[in-house]
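Section 3.1: Structural characterization of target chains.
Under the original work plan, the team committed to producing a structural model for every single-chain target entering the pipeline before any wet-lab resources were allocated. The record below documents one such target. The sequence was received from the expression subgroup and is listed exactly as submitted; it comprises 409 residues.
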Amino acid sequence: MSAPKKVVLAYSGGLDTSIILKWLQTEYGCEVVTFTADLGQGEELDPARQKAELLGIKPENIFIEDLREEFVRDFVFPMFRANAVYEGLYLLGTSIARPLISQRLIEIAEATGADAVAHGATGKGNDQVRFELSAYALNPEIKVIAPWREWDLTSRTKLLEFAEAHQIPIAKDKRGEAPFSVDANLLHTSSEGKVLEDPAVEAPEYVYQRTDHPENAPDSPEYIEIGFEKGDAVSINGEAMSPATILTQLNEYGRKHGIGRLDFVENRFVGMKSRGIYETPGGDILLEAHRGIEQITLDSGAGHLKDSIMPRYAELIYNGFWFSPEREMLQALIDKSQEHVTGTVRLKLYKGSARTVGRWSPNSLYSEAHVTFEEDAGAYDQTDAAGFIQLNALRLKLIAQRNKRVSGK
């Protein structure tokens, strides 16, 4: 790969990406553009601008953007229409943020005339795959620089030495090994490494950042109502809100009641297993509510088909294929299924759990007349079931007769 002339760097303002910024300048002698996204990680972003300026980045080459609404509206909500859960448990909080970051990296590269993008993902993880697959899907000609796969700064000591040699500010807590690494956005926090690497050892309580301990949650349950239109949450307790506002509010409910904790050993796309501690307080509530409204608005055939494709859809997102044709095809099917998923769900929040306790919809398929144990006024003829059973039993009878002949019994 020829040396890049201008690189757009996904820049957090932390030590690692600050070292990457300086390394790009010294290694390639190139101009660097920084992009910092506010995805609801809960950090002040002005220090990222200040540090980028300190490291010689021109003000016009510093991009800091609030993408919370776009993140929830165009990425989180479409994923939740599918009830996407990876390996039965993980709500894909890190995975779903990467395509949006990559999309903006490519757009900024085009706007600034950059010929390369760079990220700070390591060579052991999934994020390198997600960033780069997305980048190439959007611009097949773009150069992608992954310093962790190129440089010789292979230890914390070498990183700190590089930082000191180039006058990169080092926070005091960065002079030793961090106890664990954290990724955060409006949907989740993810904590991995160090004190969490032994999956046999319970994670210490200080790892949890978004949720109070369920045992310390209120002793009385709290009830909330979430309104949906075409599969997307649009209100809480009757108050219309924007997508990001809804998720922010649900996060607060979840934090208070200790909802959304997950201790999970997953299979990374690159081949190894990894133990992580995830917190998705609002996401767990939203998933429960969405399934609640689907229970009365989705036909069984549509719902079962949707559930059958969900693992494949979730795997595509986890593995970095958000911009693939197969993900878009599945999304079209999922979105078609949501045309009548409108209504309200009532949930009970209590000590780590969110449970649907009521649901109603103008599009409901639930018929009390058909399921009642009282007189149904002729809505359902129970004698019809006899023929239904006999037809479905026919092949089972034939198999049983065949087996008796073969065995001679």
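Residues 134 and 288 are 29 Å apart (CA to CA).
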